[in-house]
Design a protein that fits this description.
Helix content: 25-40%
CATH class of the largest domain: Alpha Beta
Number of helices: 21
Shape: globular
Structural class: alpha/beta
CATH architecture of the largest domain: 3-Layer(aba) Sandwich
Number of strands: 24
Distance between the termini: 43 Å
CATH superfamily of the largest domain: Pyruvate-ferredoxin oxidoreductase, PFOR, domain III
Mean pLDDT: 96
CATH topology of the largest domain: Pyruvate-ferredoxin Oxidoreductase, domain 3
Oligomer: single chain
Largest sheet: 7 strands, mixed
Strand content: 15-25%
């Protein structure tokens, strides 16, 4: 056995989609997390319901890195269809665990191989026959627990969390885990160097996925209406709202919200715009194909100045693309969505905690600016489990923006204009239905209107209104979340990234320094339009690498247009294969351009 490797490797589990492996995989992830080991989990699953190969990778990093790695040292396979591929995936010196009923050649001599009696132990389990294929996944949990040294108590705690404390499923699943661990102790001799040991680096943290975090953040932000239509990978956001709203948003036993599953995305956005116009805090969630269908309604909301929030949990496109793969390919689609001149506010969460934060902050911004606000997440951030700080209830009151209530109209003697800029920030005052003052009413329309909301096709009025809307967008630069900047005085080049690429960039900066590459400064962009800090960052460095998970360098295009005098500094480090970016790829991409 070679030198011991502790808490610093990747483990990939290969199974068949639709047969319950996710429960076993997340149990392993949570057990390791409960041992205090920094971990991250990436689920690679097909877009069918059942029967095709699926892979789940757990990364353990004693240094706390959470980005996907290119290499995997330990592979577990229960799937004959992917056996050869899974075997080839194992790094030299690694370990290969496989179901012993797979009778395929195993010719590699540079790895440790461990057969597992998966079917035999599943048959011996005290469960009904129709559950055996599902509970069989717990066999590899038990074998791995013994070989790697995973704490069995932590596995039981993870099962209790997953099954919400229900004794029967906890006992059934843990029984198989224990039986498999006992079998491994009696029949397997450890020959690989990989171990896990307790740490304290997850103290005070929780595990959550971005979609759930976004849902809870929206609840805390006072969301009142949700119109949605199912689409991968956004569905679990609305589904989580259906879990948490009934728990947290009732008054006198009655619901204080409405969640409507529409017949399609057009209906979902139409309902959302109507709810936003009526004064409700309204939102919808979708992915790229749904955004395409929402274009005209979003343009209406922009021009009529209706506050709404649209979550886009991105996947790989165009068309229906790869529904269960991740990307950042909807940025320009969203930025330029709809027809005519318009500019949208876009929030770019880079962590699960920011998904929570932007859940409530997007609702505030939409009402403050009276405009559609997009939040661009992606499948990796939205559907995978991440370590995160616990969510904190917003420490500020809900910001409803410039709303005139009855008392306000009394003070002005009912004199006001719906689309007039009285404060110099481009944002007008509004009233909402239900205001009982006789002067509160106004007619909302998507056609040309003057500052009193009266229909007009007068060219001067049109230009005046559009200029005000542009001023409002400039005001948004001061209101959107500022970028996060990490820089030292001796940094030579800059890196700009956003969203789920952040963890890969953070690790890549370490790898670049280890490889003798340039010292880097890092700006993680959190919103569009760009704030002043972005321009100052770009101006400071001779070369700026814009890292993103798409083919065409969409953020670089947007930044080049926003900062035309600095565009020659911007270089693309973009890649889209449906998988999260790795630190090694980011490092190699930057180094290859540095030597040119």
């Amino acid at each position: 056995m070679s030198e011991k490797i502790t808490n610093n490797f990747s483990l990939t589990i290969a199974t068949v989609n639709g047969f319950g492996s996710q429960t076993a995989n997340v149990t392993l992830l949570r057990a390791l997390f409960k041992m205090g080991i920094p971990v991250s989990g990436k689920n690679l699953f097909p877009s069918n319901v059942q029967g095709l190969p699926t892979w789940y990778t757990i990364r353990l990093s004693r240094d706390g890195f959470t980005a996907r790695r290119d290499e995997t040292e330990i592979v577990v396979t229960l799937n004959p269809a992917s056996f050869a591929r899974d075997l080839a995936m194992v790094q030299p010196g690694g370990a290969f665990f496989y179901a012993d009923d797979i009778k395929l050649p195993l010719e590699r001599k540079d790895i440790s191989a461990y057969p597992m009696p998966v079917k035999a132990l599943a048959r011996a389990a005290d469960v009904s026959s129709n559950l055996r294929d599902y509970i069989a996944n717990m066999v590899y949990v038990g074998v791995l627990a013994h070989i790697l040294g995973i704490d069995m108590d932590k596995i039981k705690q993870a099962l209790a969390f997953h099954f919400h404390g229900k004794e029967q499923p906890i006992a059934s699943n843990f029984g198989v885990v224990q039986a498999a661990a006992d079998w491994a102790k009696q029949n397997l001799t450890k020959t690989d160097p990989f171990w896990v040991e307790p740490m304290d680096k997850t103290d005070g943290l929780i595990m959550a996925d971005g979609n759930t975090a976004a849902a809870i953040g929206s609840v805390y932000g006072g969301v009142q209406f949700v119109g949605w239509y199912p689409i991968t990978p956004a569905s679990t956001l609305a589904e989580s709202l259906n879990v948490y709203l009934p728990m947290l948003r009732k008054k006198d036993g009655k619901q204080t919200y409405a969640v409507l599953q529409a017949e399609d995305e057009l209906a979902a956005i139409g309902m959302t715009v109507g709810a936003g116009w009526s004064g409700l805090r309204a939102m919808t969630s979708t992915s790229g194909p749904g955004i395409s269908l929402m274009a005209e309604y979003t343009g209406l909301a922009y021009y009529a100045e209706v506050p709404i929030v649209i979550w886009n949990v991105q996947r790989v496109g165009p068309s229906t693309g790869l529904p269960t793969r991740t990307a950042q390919g909807d940025l320009t689609e969203t930025y330029f969505l709809s027809h005519g001149d318009k500019q949208y506010v876009i929030l770019l969460p880079g962590s699960v905690n920011e998904c929570f934060e932007f859940g409530w902050k997007a609702l505030d911004l939409a009402e403050r600016l009276q405009t559609p606000v997009f939040v661009l997440s992606d499948l990796d951030l939205g559907m995978n489990q991440w370590m995160t700080e616990p969510f904190k209830y917003p420490d500020m009151p809900i910001d409803r923006g410039k709303v005139l209530w009855e008392a306000d109209l009394e003070r002005t003697n009912g004199v006001w204009a719906r689309y007039k800029d009285v404060d110099g920030d481009g944002i007008p005052w509004r009233t909402v239905p239900g205001n009982m003052h006789p002067a509160s009413a106004w007619f909302g329309r998507g056609t040309g209107h003057d500052e009193n909301a009266r229909y007009t096709e007068n060219s001067r009025e049109w230009e005046k209104n559009m200029a005000r809307l542009k001023k409002k967008y400039d005001t948004a630069r001061r209101l959107v979340p500022a970028p996060v900047i990490e820089a030292s005085a001796d940094a030579e080049v800059g890196i700009i990234a956003y969203g789920s690429t952040g963890p890969a960039v953070e690790e890549a900066r370490v790898l670049l320094e280890q490889a003798g590459g340039p010292k880097t400064a890092f700006l993680r962009l959190r919103a569009l339009p760009c704030s002043q800090e972005v321009g100052e960052f770009v101006q400071k460095y001779e070369r700026i690498y814009v890292v993103e998970a798409n083919r065409d360098g969409q953020m670089r295009q947007i930044l080049s247009a926003a900062l035309p005098d600095q565009a020659s500094k911007l270089r693309s480090a973009c890649h889209s294969d449906g998988l999260p970016l790795t630190a090694k790829w980011v490092k190699d991409s930057i180094l290859s351009q540095e030597v040119k």
